[in-house]
């Protein structure tokens, strides 16, 4: 035990999280190698997973699916998307003199007779005249380069592609429980990264809508790296710090969802255009960067990391499980309604994050009519909160556990989800008549509680059924993707309104937050009850562990 760089318990799991203690061989420092390998690999997987999201409108232009490409305004003057359009920058509407119906327009109102009666201004007529544009019934010049508002085929394609990108991960995340037991963390993570590297590189060849959707589906498989991320940390860190370790590894990995908004647009796409590339070429070349990064990370993990503190390959015996891995394990685990609820609560937080990664940049570009770089910067603020917010959730879960026992972890989970729902609903109340910074302010608080809820979730998961840890981690992780699929199809894809889906989504989150009192374990207790009397003798070791952890609380801190 003294040979390890980290302080460990009798199971050789680290009881501290020294972030910058990076030296030593893999035999001496397997804990921090696993922590940073799981974090960096998940971070890069997120970058690749959502690399196409902030460039979606530019891809739409390349695929010629924008409303004004399919239906040129000169020939199709009364398309609904045009009739509803108003430039936020100039305040000029496509129907500059109004529509014949505010909610369901079919035509623009004609130019007023007094305007038509006035002469057109020119070099010789300067008084009592009007400009030529004021005599136009329609103003196609105010339309965006790509009209892709709710109700258009373009919007439907982008929404479906975003939703499909998380569906592919659901099946793989579920399967990851058994795959991790059979092949170990290093092999599974390496395989997923190589898969993602190949298909995000192949994204440069997209020429059709079905090809775009298929690529997003195949790249989405890399989202399953999250299961490895959480299982790997749970195998390496002890109970007094596992919540913090899982939250930091997961949160800093999720940070890739915010970084990719900036990386793909401001660092790659726009500089490539400035260097002389056409937009169609620039976004395709940009796809090579995440492809290369994923490949290099996969090679590094395979060569430098172990699955557990003492062995290169994972063995299920480490968790106390005696039987061989089986698909029947999933059935046994799902018999526990608490596992199902945890998966659905994760759908309400991580699923929400995935949905936001897909829709925010396009929402800011279309609804608030922002430039690509500005929209990417605002959308990135949501993901960048992962820098500390998910870790904060894990730390809160650990702290309340030390102070109040296991019920502290459940209360942390409930409060994070509750306030997430409040601010998500609030974000849906911000329309484009209000300044962008109002939306940004609410978005930041919304993001804070989303990420915290993800951290509190995986502060509970390692305790639910330790012998089935990989299976439960996989199922809960898959629940996150299920939530994104539900949000994509039922809310953001089905409701033809730019802000109502956010309100409905907020109600979805609140529903599952209010089910938290269902959590109860005889050995741990629940939100309002302590452990069962018959299990008190079994809980003594846990209480001793908590007491020891309080006496040596410094070991549970994140050591910089």
UniProtKB/TrEMBL annotation:
Keyword terms, alphabetized: Membrane, Transmembrane, Transmembrane helix
The keyword S-adenosyl-L-methionine is annotated on this UniProt entry: no
Top-level taxon of the source organism: Eukaryota
Gene3D superfamilies (alphabetical): MFS general substrate transporter like domains
Membrane topology according to the record: Multi-pass membrane protein
Compartments (UniProt record): Membrane
GO CC terms of this entry: membrane
TM segment ranges: 34-57, 192-213, 219-239, 251-270, 282-305, 410-428, 434-450, 471-495, 501-521
Single GO MF annotation: nitrate transmembrane transporter activity
Family: Belongs to the major facilitator superfamily. Nitrate/nitrite porter (TC 2.A.1.8) family.
Protein name: Nitrate/nitrite transporter
Species of provenance: Polarella glacialis (Dinoflagellate)
């Amino acid at each position: 035990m003294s040979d390890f760089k980290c302080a460990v318990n009798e199971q050789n799991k680290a009881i501290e999280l020294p972030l910058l203690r990076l030296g030593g061989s893999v035999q001496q420092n397997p804990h921090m190698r696993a922590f940073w390998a799981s974090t960096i690999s998940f971070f890069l997987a997120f970058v690749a997973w959502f690399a196409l999201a902030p460039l979606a409108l530019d891809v739409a232009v390349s695929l010629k699916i924008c409303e004004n490409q399919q239906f040129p305004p000169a020939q199709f003057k009364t398309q609904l998307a045009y009739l509803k359009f108003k430039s936020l920058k100039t305040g000029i509407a496509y129907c500059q003199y109004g529509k014949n119906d505010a909610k369901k327009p079919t035509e623009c109102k004609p130019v007023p007779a007094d305007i038509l009666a006035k002469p057109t201004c020119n070099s010789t007529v300067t008084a009592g005249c009007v400009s030529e544009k004021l005599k136009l019934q329609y103003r196609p010049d105010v339309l965006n380069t790509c009209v892709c508002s709710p109700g258009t085929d373009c919007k439907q394609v982008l929404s479906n592609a975003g939703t499909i990108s998380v569906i592919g991960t659901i099946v793989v995340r579920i399967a990851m429980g058994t795959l991790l037991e059979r092949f170990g963390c290093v092999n599974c993570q390496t395989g997923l990264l190589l898969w993602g590297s190949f298909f995000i590189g192949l994204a440069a060849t997209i020429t059709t809508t079905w090809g775009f959707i298929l690529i997003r589906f195949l790249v989405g498989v890399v989202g399953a790296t999250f299961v490895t991320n959480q299982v790997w940390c749970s195998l390496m860190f002890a109970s007094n710090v596992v919540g913090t370790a899982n939250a930091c590894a997961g949160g800093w990995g999720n940070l890739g969802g915010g970084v990719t908004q900036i990386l793909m647009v401001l660092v790659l796409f726009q500089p490539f255009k400035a260097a002389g590339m056409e937009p169609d070429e620039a976004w395709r070349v940009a796809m090579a960067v995440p492809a290369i990064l994923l490949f290099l990370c996969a090679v590094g993990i395979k060569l430098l990391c172990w699955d557990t503190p003492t062995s290169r390959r994972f063995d299920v015996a480490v968790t106390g499980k005696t039987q061989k891995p089986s698909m029947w394990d999933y059935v046994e685990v799902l018999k526990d309604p608490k596992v199902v609820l945890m998966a659905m609560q994760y759908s309400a937080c991580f699923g929400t994050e995935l949905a936001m990664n897909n829709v925010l940049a396009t929402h800011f570009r279309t609804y608030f009519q922002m430039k690509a770089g500005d929209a990417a910067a605002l959308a990135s603020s949501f993901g960048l909160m992962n820098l500390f917010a998910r870790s904060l959730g894990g730390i809160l879960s650990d702290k309340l556990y030390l102070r109040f026992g296991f019920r502290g972890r459940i209360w942390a989970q409930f409060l994070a989800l509750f306030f997430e729902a409040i601010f998500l609903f609030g974000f849906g109340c911000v329309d484009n008549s209000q300044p962008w910074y109002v939306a940004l302010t609410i978005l930041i608080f919304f993001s804070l509680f989303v990420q915290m809820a993800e951290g509190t979730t995986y502060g509970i998961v390692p305790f639910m059924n330790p012998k089935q840890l990989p299976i439960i981690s996989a199922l809960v992780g898959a629940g996150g993707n299920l939530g994104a699929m539900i949000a994509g199809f039922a809310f953001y894809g089905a409701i033809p309104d730019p802000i109502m889906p956010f309100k409905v989504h907020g109600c979805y989150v609140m529903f599952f937050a209010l089910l938290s009192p269902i959590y109860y374990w005889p050995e741990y207790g629940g939100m309002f009850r302590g452990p069962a009397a018959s299990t008190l003798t079994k809980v003594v070791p846990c209480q001793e562990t908590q007491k020891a952890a309080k006496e040596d609380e410094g070991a549970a801190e994140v050591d910089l």
